Amino acid sequence: MEKELSNIIVDDKIFIIRGIQVMIDRDLADLYQVETKRLNEQVKRNIKKFPNDFMFQLMDEEKNELVAKCDRLEKLKHSTSNPFVFTEHGVYMLSTVLKSKVATDVSLSIMRTFVRLKNQAVPYFDIIKRLEKLETSDKETRELLSKVVQVVSNMQDIQNEAKEGTNKIGFVK
User: Fold this and answer.
1) Mean pLDDT of 104-111
2) If we measure between CA atoms, which residue out of 7, 103, 95, 12 comes closest to residue 54?
3) Rounded distance, CA 15 to CA 30, Å?
4) How does pLDDT run across 8-58, given as a tens digit for each residue?
5) Is 85 in contact with 22 (CB distance < 8 Å)?
């Protein structure tokens, strides 16, 4: 039974791991209507298209955290191998090695979702700059704006701290 491609829900299949948005091989295989084993076989056959910043394998603690956060991934808990995850660029590369109309259509839908999610996230520093430029002679409004700037700054600090505690992907010197 072919899925209705216009109704693909991708948002709940994108996770932030190591500070970047990724999708799990099992979710991608489901969307592409292939077995996870077959998807990973194609990746291995075309491994040069999947450098470390396009795809990586989760570590045990990352897998356990993912299973704890998402009930639908309960089967991963007892899996002997850790899943592979794909960045936005890795998902694009999958569409070049999975040569079917479904793979192309699903990849387009996933790419649009990644772009939409990026566009929804306004950088904190932009918000702060805009707030700091606002001028008012009203003391209460100035104090309120100052508090908002502080809260947004704290949010940025929390995000930066979270990124510092993650394992980076890509080449290690």
Assistant:
1) 79
2) 95
3) 16
4) 677 778 888 888 888 999 999 988 888 999 999 999 999 999 999 999 999
5) yes
Query: How far apart are alpha carbons 16 and 107 in whole angstroms?
Result: 19
Longest dimension (CA), the chain: 66
Burial 23-59 (b: 16+ CB within 10 A, else e): bbbbbbbbbbebebeebbebbeeeeebbeeebbbebe
| 3-state secondary structure at position 162 | helix
Q: Residue by residue, what is the 3-state secondary structure of 51-65?
A: CCCCEEECCHHHHHH
Q: Residues 54, 89: contact at Cβ < 8 Å?
A: yes
Amino acid at 75: K
pTM score, whole prediction: 0.63
From CA 33, how far away is CA 140, in angstroms rounded? 57
CB-based contact 127:150 (threshold 8 Å): no
Reduced to 3 DSSP states, what percent helix, strand and coil does the chain have, rounded to the nearest 5?
65, 10, 25
Looking at 1-156, which runs of residues are DSSP E strands? 14-17, 20-24, 55-57, 84-86
